[in-house]
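Appendix B. Extra example for self-study. Work through it before the problem class; the solution is given directly after the inputs so you can check yourself.
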Amino acid sequence: MTERKSFKLPDVGEGLTEAEIVRWHVAPGDEIEMNQIVVEIETAKAIVELPSPYEGVVAELHVAEGETVDVGVPIISVDVAGEPGAAPAAPPAPEAAALKEDLVPSPAADPGTHIGPETGPDVPAKSPGEPARVPVLVGYGVRPGATKRRPRRRPQPVDEPARRPAGQAARPVADQPTRRAVDRPARGVVALATPPVRKLAKDLGIDLAALSGTGPRGSVTREDVRAAADRTTAAPAAPVAAGTVREQRIPVRGVRRSTAAAVTRSAFTAPHVTEFLQVDATETVELVRRLRELPEFAEVKVSPLLLVARALLVAVRRHPMINARWTDDEIIIPEYVNLGIAVATERGLVVPNIKDAQNLSLPELATALGGLAETARAGRSSLENLTGGTISITNVGVFGVDAGTPILTPGESANLAFGQIRELPWVRRGELAIRRVTTLSLSFDHRVVDGELGSAVLRDVGAMVEDPARMLAWS
Amino acid sequence: MTVGAPETTDLIQLLTPEGELVERPDYPLDLSGAEIRSLYRDLVITRRFDLEAVALTRQGELGLWPSLLGQEAAQVGSARALNATDMVFPTYREHGVAWCRGLDPLHLLGMFRGVANAGWDPAAHNFHLYTIVIGSQTLHATGYAMGIQRDGVLGTPSAAAAVAYFGDGATSQGDVNEAFVWASVFNAPVVFFCQNNQWAISEPLEKQSRIPLYRRAQGFGFPGLRVDGNDVFACLAVTRKAMEAARTGQGPTLVEAYTYRMGAHTTTDDPTRYRLAAELESWKLKDPIERVKAYLVKSEQADAAFFEEVDAEAKQYAADLRRRCLALPDPQPLDIFQNVYAEPHPLLAEEQQQFAAYLASFEDAS
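Solution. Structure tokens for the complete assembly:
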């Protein structure tokens, strides 16, 4: 005799509305104990392990790994053995009796003899299989449509004075409760709108009842009214069906959210300055070609980025201050370089860094660069990889553009952007020639780095890109 | 930052992590085998029902739970040093203290399930309501202690004292520092028991203080001590001495129990985002329960059957607590009117009537 119980995704974080199933720890057919960890989920706040509220045999997993589900959706079913002698579930006591009387003796004054509380008298069990409590939503807002208004009795005794005759035709449609919408033939839904929106509609001469809203519970929003107003004034050449949603909404979460927070913080705390330098990178491109032929580089990727990274490391050695960071009280100059590389991943931008990059040989640096990007793209960068950077490089060239004004990685004072390399007419030794040209741009925190220092670093990197032999001369 | 390495010369320890006794003539502690076994039982049951509460939260049955994992010895040791007449002012994490005071943990679960606004009578077990606001209970404790002082009972057999529990993060709060000032200048009978669990949510101790916390007391003019917070014997002995000093009119003491929050700040926190696994691993070796077990085994004061029995009891207790938690009835909307005034009040009665009419206006209202 078994009973199938389903475990619904709980709100594990004070108002979270959804979570992603990261990994199942059990499969159908598995026997599980009470509180055994069955699944790992990732919420906006954390990765958490969920313990089973049932003991029994897993019947079904309802959600695949990688899927995101709303709170309250069943994620796993468990066949629970019926307890032969168990009393049928009684209705809960009307009053919180268990809370009103203490079920335990007072502690004795002598610490040696005190024993903790004893088990209290039995409280009739409410059916434990129904965790049907509505999650209390704090801090993350209520998902539109997640709540339903309880229908009121009519006539409403408290707030419905008799001065307005029932059924009067001129009564604003938006006041009517949705359950009477069946009365309306075509659209089926009656517009809900807040008073300011109604005022706006009135001012613009828009009939709210003619709109279907895009707001919570189908309410008409300010944007809906404005869009309707635009439609009525716009040329009739582009008719758009009323209520067609022409915007896609992407929830902000995960890496996108943290990236946004980081760049905003950086942009508004560190006074940024960006300088640009166009250089002839022909020699660097040639050097990359020759390095690729060497056995030391047979297994690794050699790219102009590798040489730019090395050039930046050499420049840091010559100007340690560019590697410093600002802390309000003091400027900290590390004796090491944790070189950050901005990597575009499917989940958003991350800047993992190579620890102690100054100590690496060129093949080691190439290996580290390759590994870093691969790990980041796979979403496996560790917290250690992603923190503690001292200076960064942003390779905007891979996107086919010449230059950018990079935003500093928070806590760092310089970020070097490296543009695409392309053939351009270039004056060389007094003659016009076709050369491979790139643009370097260096953003720096003006609290730490003066224009003179920033320019010197950019000039040095540029000189090394133009003539890589300088890297040897200066290192 | 160092990984869990306190200045050992200052640290009062009576039982090492390996379960060896340490000679401290200044903190004599003569416990019988039965007493040690009962301390062990309190530690195990506390840890077990705390784990159950975490599981209940993960299953959507509680809204939130601040786990005490790792801090059992600091709480059980200090709480078992108290007399029934002493008054406890806890934070929201003092589940082990609540247990030792005799408060049914169901009350704690009821609060975090959202079916009670606190839900227990502070006078019933001399255990004040959980205080969520960081550090404000230190002022309540100081005020209460000044009241005891004014009762004129200090130094008499009916003397009592107050104890305020708080964390390392709270020491940065103005309230706590104000409490220190008041307690000091009025020589109030209060013990400030700080569980330094190293992390104020994600803020490490070095962002809270440049000096060990217990040394702050000196600046306020009363003694401060650092005790191994994972050593239940030391926490018991030190708190006993501090409480006795308070009861005999010798004024306040700051006890810094040096411990570690093994879990998250609360169930909505993810500590792997801000602290390193190595730190956690190093503290696992200092587990508060394992050392008592090791001592009981080595000194042959408990056998395998005893440990099995305690484990079974703890498991049974947790299962029972789960059952009782799930059976807690939801409060009724009109209940809120019951706790406003002690006596009937006309305006309140009118408001209650209005609210009842409003509730009855829904179609599904019975």
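Self-check: The two ends of chain A are 78 Å apart (CA to CA). If your reasoning did not lead you there, revisit section 3.
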